[in-house]
Amino acid sequence: MTTGSATAQETPQDQSSSNITCELRFVWGSTSPSQFEAILEIDQGSLGVVRNLSLQPDSIGRAVASSPTKLEFRPYSSSTFGGYDLRITAPPSARISIQATNIEGETTSHNAIVSELLNGTWVRPLGNSGGRVAFERQMYDRLQVDLGNEQTILSPGESFTTAVKGSLTGLEPGTYWLETQFAGAKPLDSRRVSVDESGSFPAEFIPMIAPETAGPHLLEFTLSPSRFLPSVIAPPEEITRRLDIVVVDRSQKLAEIGNWIPLAEIDAYQASQPGSLAWLTPEQIRNTWPIQTVTDVTHRLTVASLGSNNPLAGSFVTPTVHGQVNKRNVRTTPGPQTDGIAIRCLSMTPGSHLTIPIDNLAPGQPHRLVVDIPIDEPMRLALLLDRNGTHNGTSAQTAIELLPQDCRNDGSLASHDLIFWPETSSTELTIANAHSQWNSSVKTIHVEQAELIAPDVAASVVGQASTPGSTNAAGTREQESQKGRHGSIYLNQPILADSFGVRRTVDPATGRRYESWQTWYTAAKRLHQLMGWKQADTLYITVGSNGGAICINPALSATLRFDSGPFFSDGRSPQAKDIVELLLLLADSNDRRVILMLNLDSPIESLESVSLA
Hints:
Blueprint: E1 13-14, E2 19-34, E3 36-42, E4 46-52, E5 63-67, E6 70-73, E7 79-90, E8 95-102, E9 107-113, H1 114-117, E10 121-126, E11 131-136, H2 139-142, E12 143-146, E13 153-154, E14 159-166, E15 174-182, E16 187-195, E17 201-209, E18 215-225, E19 239-247, E20 256-267, H3 268-272, E21 280-281, H4 283-286, H5 296-306, E22 320-322, E23 325-331, E24 342-348, E25 353-358, E26 367-374, E27 381-386, E28 400-402, E29 408-410, E30 413-420, E31 427-433, E32 440-442, E33 444-453, H6 455-458, H7 473-482, E34 488-491, H8 496-499, E35 505-506, E36 513-514, H9 517-533, E37 538-545, E38 548-549, H10 579-589, E39 593-598, H11 605-612
Parallel strand pairs: 13-19, 34-37, 37-39
Antiparallel strand pairs: 1-2, 2-7, 2-11, 3-6, 3-8, 4-7, 5-6, 8-9, 10-11, 12-14, 14-17, 15-16, 15-18, 18-19, 20-21, 20-33, 22-25, 23-24, 24-32, 25-31, 26-30, 26-33, 27-28, 27-31, 29-30, 35-36, 37-38
């Protein structure tokens, strides 16, 4: 895989014409959504589009090359950001003219010399509305890396040769050290390279071996001055390029969810009462309590005596209530020889919600909430897990809504399972009434942690479920597949990070979060854990929708809507990743099937170019 604008054999400077070849990032933005159209023209050399950086589906096909020296960017739907990565072949003295017009008809013109754009960031105002237009050269074009593979997906222990070359790096001429290592590990290779007057050096070929450990890894290439003594006056001038790779073991199965270990039982009504600590009770302690009539005094004594034994209540803040909540009794369905009994529940008026802190979770491990709700009257309940610890309200985009028909029936109560993977040891659960007219009720919330079992023993373990109706996933799936039956999970959008609670990777320079192989590999593992527990051996997934895609298909000209990796400032992921290939490899190793679907709801650039010509 070549991750720069030129292959390892190309040179950044054409000796016959004194041209240089490089990639420049051309972007524009404003504080409020707006529409722009622009014309870029170079007086010598050529201009070309490498990739579209805009996220709007209708931005596809809006860049038109009217000549080798002229690009026209047609307007599309309003946005606060847009841009393109451009490939430029021209003399350093070539002049680029920019003419941009906003939706109000205001035109702004600027000129830039190519040599001015090679280092640093070139920024100019765009009209009088606070907009900006900018050029910036990316790290992946300065230090170009070629793994020799189409994608950065490797096998454990795989041997490969990496070609690294400098292209107009901006460094002073001289001798430098090129050091290669996996992040956090010992250097793999160190060698001297000679940087010429243009700041470039020819390709260096470095033999490497992929890590034996499956998962995401980060390769680092650092170019620093060759000095006997470190500088005490100023830090050495150096550049660092990173490369995001993932190692997939095709022969290794992923660990599966075996059993659920009870952590706590939350009484919703008790949690809504101020000053109470008994609303959260570890299951292990609760099952040993004697049955007795509890008065106010004994209630306080019981809470005090359990305070030191309750690891889930020691560091908690008090649950918060917004709106009006009440107690109501729900009578269970009578049996053949027994009368129904009254069960206390929490009733919430429209718009009210209860926020409950949950502590002592295992970060990164699968957990489950089992929510018991009465279904004797219409209701609409919403659940929201806030991983940041701050509640900002519920909405259709952030909350999971529970309706009676969504839950399995057990007399007058129904239970709903919500599997989640906490990022930290604590989180907040918000239970809200999402209906505008009716009250909604909830009885109990069970908190459980999964016990992960090795694949070789998954089929032989007979799971003991903590809630009625649960079975061991691995053993049941094997039995069903032998009968020719298949269960499936359907994902109509490839938003795996949000669906499985995976936090995106922080860019070291900007602090923004983007998708990396760490993001996708973690999400894919969690997806397979969910499939194993749900006894599903087939995944139906839409790999392209709303202009974005998680597959590599040049015909789609997909935006970066689902994979924002090319925005990393250290150049670790200059091209869109083939997430579909990762899903297929993991599916093969775990005996599952993947059915790919494509939603053609956005323009196809090859057709757009015909219609715009």
